[in-house]
Amino acid sequence: MQPDAIYAICGFDDIPNRRARGFDLMVVDDEGNQRPWPIVVIRWSKKVLGYVNKCPHNSVKLDWERNEFLDPYGVRLMCGKHGSTFELSTGRCVEGQCKGRVLTPIALTVLDGEICVVGVRLVEDDAPSDA
Ligand code: FES
């Protein structure tokens, strides 16, 4: 187990400023089971924010059109099914079906121009043999 492993998922410049992109990753849980872990990553100027891509009220992905995560003003995340909107900085639903509930935040960092996921154990396509 590598609790402090860092996984690069894309280049910082692969997500344009003020846009969001989804990633369908797999994680290994504490029991060693693999499970899907869809996430959304938002780039906002020099910052990146991320949440599990699952609405807190009925567990569907937010982007009913692939990678369409933002509301028409481009300032909140939006559920494509219901139009509920979520604050970018907190993940809190401020309008719609799940008002008051929050998206699950994920830990991200930027290293050498790469957006990286930290704090989880991902299933990697090319797992190192020394693990
Ligand atoms: S699935 Fe929860 S607001 Fe749409």
TrEMBL record:
<feature type="domain" description="Rieske">
    <location>
        <begin position="38"/>
        <end position="117"/>
    </location>
</feature>
<dbReference type="GO" id="GO:0046872">
    <property type="term" value="F:metal ion binding"/>
</dbReference>
<dbReference type="InterPro" id="IPR017941">
    <property type="entry name" value="Rieske_2Fe-2S"/>
</dbReference>
<keyword id="KW-0001">2Fe-2S</keyword>
<dbReference type="InterPro" id="IPR036922">
    <property type="entry name" value="Rieske_2Fe-2S_sf"/>
</dbReference>
<protein>
    <recommendedName>
        <fullName>Rieske domain-containing protein</fullName>
    </recommendedName>
</protein>
<keyword id="KW-0479">Metal-binding</keyword>
<keyword id="KW-0411">Iron-sulfur</keyword>
<dbReference type="GO" id="GO:0051537">
    <property type="term" value="F:2 iron, 2 sulfur cluster binding"/>
</dbReference>
<keyword id="KW-0408">Iron</keyword>
<dbReference type="Pfam" id="PF00355">
    <property type="entry name" value="Rieske"/>
</dbReference>
